[in-house]
Amino acid sequence: MKNIGIAILGLGVVGGGTYKILTEHREFYKKVHGLDIAVESVLEINKERALSLGIKENTVADNIAEICSNPEVDIVVEAMGGVEPAKSYVLAALNAGKSVVTSNKELFCKYSHELEKSAKKNNCGLFYEASCGGGIPVIRSLLDNLQGNKILSLTGIINGTTNYILTKMNNEGASYSHALNEAKKLGYAEADSTADVEGYDAVYKLSILASLSFHTKVPYTEIFREGITNIDTVDISYGKKLGYALKLLAIGKNTDSGIEVRVHPAFISSAHPLASVNDSYNAVYITGDCVEDVMLYGRGAGASPTGSAIVGDIIYCASHDKFNYSTFDNNECPDPATKFIKNFESAYYLRLNAVDKAGVLSKVTSTLSKHNISVAQVIQDNENKRDKTVSIILTTHVTKEKNIGKAVAEINSAEGLADVVTVLRVVD
Ligand code: HSE
Q: Which of 72, 227, 303, 340 holds its CA 20 to 30 A away from the CA of 162?
């Protein structure tokens, strides 16, 4: 039997979930893995929270130094979130020779180069399965199982909070704010839910997944981002009638012209497997040149699923003597040969408010045509006419992002024509 001592930094949803799994499964891990994994120490400002989990008072450390100097601690689990003090604590643990398991996507995305350098120098493990997709084993799939492939693309639903909100809006017609409050209550949202709803959380995760997939650092600053705060249930309903589901998608493509990385809400055909990924479930749809399509699916947020990923890393770390690090030169910058495509291509959904009179639609379509945008379909909603104004739903064939921007600006600046109130991308 090998004894493994754990320290957990932060006993919020993820840290608390990890503590519960470790204590409830202790005998099971002894039996199947020959590992006696004991939580030797925790760091938590809210002592009451620690005690309410059944943690003894003398297990609660006063500071990180106490954990770093504790010879019983082999692995430090960082479940605090945010950059500081998490970064200083992780570096202190690595420098003290402790391996680290983290669920912190923001920290890992921004500083993986620094953390990995320190882990290598100190011959420690650095594991981050829980940083992306909650309980889905996507990191290890990319690091190990899919290594035989050139990864061509990945499309993911990688934020549980926004997927929960969009599912509620789609299935129940719930308001955005009601659905967000529910997601907070269920422990899916970040401490500051702006990170979820504005797409930052998905951007951090996409940066990690794209870096591993494409073998070069993909800085989060290169990722196009748009959140879901302006989504109107009306558009979800129109989209549904057109055979689409609305999802916050994280898209990464590795093409001959460069790497394309973006996070934004998008309509996806209801026949696509990602369209039926609902609630707090996440999925990552990966296309490799040998394997073709692989979809990994599971709970993307919450105490137990994220705890599952953390404990998987703990067991992996405890059962290996040598550790693997990134499969690329993990410095702060991308490979110098890498180009990032900014003016990406997509099909689009537009909703316009227009006066119902002769010539309006033709002016709209001629403006689109001027910007090289070909219309795929047009629907006028006569049932909800208000003061001679109707909604016109228009979808386009694939065009460039900049073309749409210019055409919409021109339509909106023309007097008495029509107003484009919604622009959403449509993906295959
Ligand atoms: N707030 C995150 C989400 C938690 O909703 O996906 C899991 O990373």
A: 340
Q: What are phi and psi of 92, to 5 degrees?
A: -65, -45
pTM: 0.97
Q: Is the dihedral of CA 207, 98, 1, 307 positive or negative?
A: negative
Distance 193 CA to ligand 1 centre (A): 9
User: Which fold, 149-299?
Assistant: Dihydrodipicolinate Reductase; domain 2 (3.30.360)
CATH class for domain 345-427?
Answer: alpha beta
Taking a C-beta distance cutoff of 8 angstroms, is the pair 109, 207 a contact?
yes
Mean predicted confidence (pLDDT) in 358-376: 95
Name the nearest CA neighbour of 192 among 267, 83, 280, 101: 83
Ligand 1 mean position, distance from CA 300 (Å):
6
Of these residues, 98, 105, 110, 205, which one is catalytic? Answer: 205
pLDDT per residue over 292-301, tens digit each? 999 999 999 9
* Ligand 1 pocket at CB < 6 A: 134, 159-161, 188-190, 196, 201, 300-301
